[in-house]
Design goal:
The protein is α/β, with parallel strands linked by helices and about 375 residues long. About 25% of the residues lie in helices and about 25% in strands. Strands 3, 5, 6, 9, 10, 17 and 18 form a seven-stranded mixed β-sheet that branches. The protein has a six-stranded parallel β-sheet with strand order 13-12-11-14-15-16, sandwiched between helices. The longest helix is centred in the middle third of the chain and has 13 residues. The chain starts with 7 loop residues before the first strand and ends with a strand. Nicotinamide-adenine-dinucleotide binds next to helix 1, helix 3 and helix 4. This is Alcohol dehydrogenase 1. It comes from Channa argus. Keywords: Metal-binding, NAD, Oxidoreductase, Zinc.
C-alpha cells in the first residue's frame, strides 16, 4: 500500500462546536500505532447519538470532533503487532470494544469492556489517543470510531472483520442502531414467544427493536411514536398495533394497559427522553413486566414511583443491544446475508459525505429512518 506508514490527508466532516453545522475539511490522519488499524470508510449512516453530541449534551470540551460511529470500510494499513487484520479486509468499526481479556469481557453477564469509553463515561477518545489533526489542531475521535471521515484509525479490539461479500453500504447499519435495537429485545429484554411488547420511538433503533420482538416470537407488538409517519415502516418490521400519544388525552401507560389487560410484558424505550422512560416502565404489567432503556441521555435524572418496581416490574438498560461487539457484529452480518434480519428497509435516503448536514437535518425533523452516506469508493 502506497499510503502505509504515511500521514493521509483526506476529507472529513469536522464539528467545530456545539449546535453548528459540520464543516467539510481536509484533515490529517496519522498512521496506526501498536494494535491499531487505519480504515478507509466506504459508507456511514447517521445515528441519533451523533445528534445528541452535537445538539443535546452540554459538553464544552467535546469539540472539535469528527462524529459518526455507524460505518463500514476496508483496512488500508495495520500498525505494529497487528496479526488479526490485513490490508483489504472488510470491517465494521465498533463503538464499544471487546478486548477479550478484562473481567467484563470474561464474564457472561455483560457486553461491556473496561477498555471502553463507558468506563470513563466519556464518548470521546482522549486527545492523545486521537490520530486526527486539522489546521494544526488535534481533533477528537467520537466513540473511538469517527466514521464521518474518509480514513480513521481504530483499536483492533474495536474492529469486527466481516464477510467479504457483505455490501458495506447496507451492513454499516450494524455498527450501531440495528444491533442496538434488535439486541435490546432479544438479548436484554429476552422477549419470549407469545408475549406482548411495546416499542417507544420508531427510529432505526426502535424499528430494530420491533424486528427483534418479532424474531423472538412476540404475538403483539405495539409501536408508539408521536410522528405517525413512522407507523407504515413499523408494520414492515412486524408491529401489529400503532399508538400516537398525541391522539390521547390520558397517560400512554393507561392507554396501553387498557389495550392489553393491564400492561405489556416487555417495553423498550428507544427515544432518549426521561419522561418516556417512565411511561415505558409504567406501561409494563405488574408481576413480571420488563422495561428496557435504550434511548441515550446523560443530561437529566429520571423519576418513578418505587411501587412500580416493588410490584414486580424490572427496569434495565441496554448498551449496543447487549451484543459483545466483535463477536456479535459478524454474526449479525451473517444473519443479514442469510436474510434472517432486514437492513435495506431501514435505509430511506442515500447521499454523499458532503451532504452530511442535510442528513442530520432529515433526522432532526423526523423525515428519515437512516440516511447512508457514501464516503470513499471501494
Ligand atoms: N443504548 C445504546 O447503545 C444506543 C445506541 C444507539 C442509539 N441509541 C439512542 O437510541 C435513541 C434512538 O435513536 P435513533 O437513531 O433511532 O433516533 P431517531 O431520532 O431516528 O428516532 C427517535 C424516534 O423517537 C420518536 N419520539 C420522539 N419523542 C417521542 C415521544 N415522546 N414518544 C414516542 N416517540 C417519540 C421520534 O418521532 C423518532 O421517530 C436515541 O436516543 C439514540 O441516542 C442508544
Ligand atoms: Zn474487555
Ligand atoms: Zn449510534
Amino acid at each position: 500500500m502506497a499510503t502505509a506508514g504515511k500521514v493521509i490527508r483526506c476529507k472529513a466532516a469536522v464539528a467545530w462546536g456545539p449546535k453548528k453545522p459540520l464543516v467539510l475539511e481536509k484533515i490529517e490522519v496519522a498512521p496506526p500505532q501498536v494494535n491499531e488499524v487505519r480504515i478507509k470508510i466506504v459508507a456511514t449512516s447517521v445515528c441519533h447519538t451523533d445528534l445528541y453530541h452535537l445538539f443535546e449534551c452540554e459538553h464544552n470540551n467535546g469539540f472539535p470532533i469528527v462524529l459518526g460511529h455507524e460505518g463500514a470500510g476496508i483496512v488500508e494499513s495495520i500498525g505494529p503487532g497487528v496479526t488479526e487484520f490485513q490490508p483489504g479486509d472488510k470491517v465494521i468499526p465498533l463503538p464499544i470494544p471487546q478486548c477479550g481479556e478484562c473481567h467484563f469481557c470474561k464474564s457472561p453477564k455483560t457486553n461491556q469492556c473496561v477498555k471502553g469509553w463507558t468506563a470513563g463515561s466519556s464518548i470521546m477518545l482522549a486527545l492523545p489517543d486521537s490520530r486526527f489533526t486539522c489546521k494544526g489542531k488535534k481533533v477528537l475521535q467520537f466513540a473511538g470510531t469517527s466514521t464521518f471521515s474518509e480514513y480513521t484509525v481504530v483499536r483492533t479490539m474495536a474492529v469486527a472483520k466481516i464477510d467479504p461479500a457483505a455490501p458495506l453500504d447496507k451492513v454499516c447499519l450494524l455498527g450501531c442502531g440495528v444491533c442496538t435495537g434488535f439486541g435490546a429485545a432479544v438479548n436484554t429484554a429476552k422477549v419470549e414467544p407469545g408475549s406482548t411488547c411495546a416499542v417507544f420511538g420508531l427510529g432505526a433503533v426502535g424499528l430494530a427493536a420491533v424486528m427483534g420482538c418479532k424474531s423472538a416470537g412476540a404475538k403483539r407488538i405495539i409501536a408508539v411514536d408521536v410522528n405517525p409517519d413512522k407507523f407504515e415502516k413499523a408494520k414492515v418490521f412486524g408491529a401489529t398495533d400503532f399508538v400516537n400519544p398525541k391522539d390521547h388525552n390520558k397517560p400512554i401507560s393507561q392507554v396501553l394497559a387498557e389495550m392489553t389487560n393491564g400492561g405489556v410484558d416487555y417495553s423498550l424505550e428507544c427515544v432518549g427522553n426521561v419522561a418516556v422512560m417512565r411511561s415505558a416502565l409504567e406501561s409494563c404489567v405488574q408481576g413480571w413486566g420488563v422495561s428496557v432503556i435504550v434511548g441515550w441521555t446523560d443530561s437529566s435524572d429520571f423519576a418513578a414511583r418505587p411501587m412500580q418496581l416493588i410490584a414486580g416490574r424490572t427496569w434495565k438498560g441496554s448498551l449496543f443491544g447487549g451484543f459483545r461487539s466483535k463477536d456479535g457484529v459478524p454474526e449479525m452480518v451473517k444473519a443479514y446475508m442469510e436474510k434472517k434480519v432486514k437492513l435495506d428497509e431501514f435505509i430511506t435516503h442515500t447521499m454523499t459525505l458532503d451532504q452530511v448536514n442535510d442528513a442530520i437535518d432529515l433526522m432532526k425533523h423526523g423525515k428519515c429512518v437512516r440516511t447512508v452516506l457514501s464516503v470513499c469508493s471501494q
